[in-house]
Write a sequence for this structure.
C-alpha cells in the first residue's frame, strides 16, 4: 500500500483525480468516513467553459452538475459519496443554492439524503474578508426523514442570546423538495402558499419575457440628441434606424426618466437582415448598408477597430463588424408596442411601462404582448406583495440586492382579473403614470392585497418582512 501511495505522489503528469480509496483504505474498509466537514471553494463553473476541467465534471457524471452552477455543489456530492451510511457532512458554503436555478439539482440531491440542520446567515457577514452570503448545512447520509431543523439569522445578529433574529422551522412544516428552499415561520408560509395558489405564474400567461439589446460596444451605438440630429442632417434616411433607448439606471417604478439616449439599431446582415439565405458575415450586406445609410456607416466606421474585437468567435464570422452583438432576432418587433421593463440588479422589484418603439439594454429585461392586462401587471409587479414574494424566492446578494433574472420573474404568481377590476386598476395606474402620488400608491397596494385575499394580520407580516433590511 505504501508503495502505491508513493508511486502516485511521484507521478504528477496527467493526474486529474484523487484516489480516495487508495489514500484512505482503512476508512473505506469500514464503509467510508464518519464525518466530512469543511468550507469548499466558490468558483463559477462557467469560468471553466472550454476548459478540460469542465469536461471532466461532465464525464465523471456528477448528479448535481449544472454548467451555470458553482464548484461547491460538486463538493457536496463528493463529500456525501465518501461518507459511510449514517455518516454526517457539515459544510459552510454560499447560500445561493437555496434559491438559484442552478441549485435545483443540488436541492433534489439533498432530499435523497437526510438534511438535519440548516442555518442560513442571509445578510449577516460571517467572513470579514468576503462578501458572499453563506449557510451551514448538516446532512446525514441516510433516507430523508422530513425533520430538518432550519433557522435564518438577520443582519443585526450579534450573539446567540439575541434569539429574536431567528426564524425557526421544522421541515415537517414544509417538506423540502427540488423547489426553492425558504425558511419561513408558519404565517409567512401560509401567505406564500396563498399568493401562489391565487396567482398564475407568468410563464403560463400568453406573454413573452426576454432580455434587452446587447450592442457589444455602447459608445459606438448609443448617441445623444446632438449626434442624432447631426446624422439625420447629413442623411435624412438615418432616422429609420435610430430609436430611443433605456438603461437600467433610467428605470423608475411605473415610468422612467429618458436620458436623451438613442440607439443606432443595426441587426445582423443589415439591411439584408430579412434574407434568410444569409448565414454568416455578408460583404454584400455591408456594401448595401454603406450605400443606403452613408452617414451612419461613416459614424460606425470610426469604431471599426474596437467593434471588430468584440466576441472573436462571432464578429466577422456570424455577423458583420457594424452589427450589434445581440439584437433580439426573435423578438425585435416586440419593441414596436409598449413593454414592461425592469432592472435585473435592483434593491427591490422596479418595473416600468415604456412608450411604443422604445428599446432597452441588456442590463434590463422586459415583458411583451401585455395587452389589456398591462396596468394590472405593472401594479402587481411593483407591489409590496411581490416584493415579499421576491424576498422569499429570489437570492439576494448582500447590499447589492436582487439579481432579478427572467427565471424568477416568469415564476411570479399573478391572477388574471375580471374586466371590472381591469377598469379600476387602469384608472389608478393611469393616475400614477400621469403624476406619481403617494395616496394613489396606497390605493393600488390596497387593491392588490384585496385581489390576493390578504387580511390585516397578513398585511402587517408582509410589510414587516420587506422593511426588515
Amino acid at each position: 500500500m505504501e508503495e502505491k501511495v508513493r508511486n502516485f505522489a511521484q507521478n504528477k503528469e496527467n493526474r486529474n483525480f484523487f484516489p480516495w480509496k487508495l489514500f484512505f483504505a482503512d476508512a473505506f474498509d469500514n464503509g467510508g468516513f464518519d464525518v466530512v466537514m469543511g468550507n469548499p471553494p466558490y468558483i463559477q463553473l462557467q469560468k471553466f467553459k472550454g476548459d478540460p476541467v469542465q469536461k471532466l465534471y461532465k464525464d465523471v457524471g456528477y448528479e448535481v452538475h449544472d454548467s451555470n452552477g458553482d464548484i461547491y455543489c460538486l463538493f457536496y456530492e463528493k463529500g456525501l459519496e465518501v461518507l459511510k451510511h449514517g455518516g454526517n457532512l457539515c459544510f459552510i458554503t454560499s447560500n445561493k443554492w437555496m434559491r438559484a436555478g442552478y441549485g435545483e439539482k443540488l436541492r433534489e440531491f439533498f432530499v435523497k439524503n437526510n438534511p438535519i440542520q440548516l442555518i442560513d446567515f442571509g445578510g449577516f457577514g460571517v467572513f470579514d474578508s468576503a462578501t458572499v452570503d453563506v449557510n451551514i448545512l448538516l446532512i446525514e447520509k441516510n433516507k430523508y426523514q422530513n425533520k430538518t431543523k432550519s433557522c435564518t439569522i438577520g443582519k443585526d445578529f450579534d450573539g446567540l442570546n439575541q434569539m429574536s433574529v431567528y426564524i425557526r422551522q421544522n421541515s415537517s412544516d414544509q417538506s423540502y423538495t427540488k423547489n426553492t428552499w425558504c425558511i419561513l415561520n408558519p404565517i409567512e408560509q401560509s401567505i406564500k402558499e396563498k399568493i401562489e395558489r391565487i396567482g398564475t405564474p407568468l410563464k403560463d400567461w400568453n406573454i413573452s419575457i426576454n432580455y434587452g439589446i446587447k450592442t457589444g460596444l455602447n459608445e459606438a451605438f448609443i448617441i445623444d440628441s446632438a449626434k442624432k440630429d447631426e446624422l439625420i442632417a447629413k442623411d435624412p434616411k438615418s432616422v429609420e434606424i435610430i430609436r430611443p433607448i433605456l438603461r437600467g439606471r433610467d428605470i423608475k417604478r411605473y415610468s422612467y426618466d429618458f436620458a436623451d439616449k438613442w440607439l443606432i439599431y443595426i441587426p445582423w446582415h443589415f439591411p439584408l437582415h430579412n434574407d434568410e439565405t444569409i448565414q454568416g458575415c455578408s460583404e454584400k450586406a455591408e456594401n448595401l448598408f454603406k450605400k443606403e445609410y452613408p452617414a451612419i456607416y461613416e459614424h460606425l466606421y470610426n469604431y471599426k477597430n474596437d467593434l471588430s474585437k468584440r466576441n472573436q468567435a462571432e464578429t466577422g464570422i456570424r455577423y458583420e463588424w457594424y452589427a450589434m452583438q445581440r439584437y433580439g432576432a426573435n423578438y425585435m418587433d416586440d419593441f414596436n408596442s409598449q413593454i414592461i421593463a425592469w432592472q435585473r440588479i435592483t434593491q427591490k422589484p422596479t418595473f416600468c411601462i415604456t412608450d411604443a418603439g422604445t428599446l432597452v439594454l441588456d442590463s434590463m429585461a422586459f415583458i411583451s404582448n401585455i395587452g389589456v392586462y398591462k396596468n394590472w401587471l405593472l401594479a402587481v409587479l411593483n407591489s409590496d406583495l411581490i416584493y415579499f414574494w421576491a424576498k422569499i424566492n429570489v437570492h439576494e446578494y448582500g447590499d447589492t440586492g436582487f439579481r432579478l433574472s427572467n427565471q424568477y420573474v416568469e415564476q411570479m404568481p399573478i391572477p388574471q382579473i375580471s374586466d371590472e377590476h381591469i377598469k379600476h386598476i387602469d384608472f389608478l395606474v393611469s393616475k400614477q403614470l400621469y403624476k406619481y402620488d403617494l395616496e394613489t400608491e396606497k390605493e393600488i397596494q390596497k387593491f392588490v392585497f384585496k385581489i390576493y385575499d390578504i387580511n390585516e394580520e397578513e398585511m402587517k407580516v408582509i410589510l414587516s418582512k420587506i422593511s426588515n433590511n
Remarks:
- Residues 161-167 have pLDDT under 50 and may be disordered.
- Residues 350 and 359 are 17 Å apart (CA to CA).
- The chain has 18 helices and 18 strands.
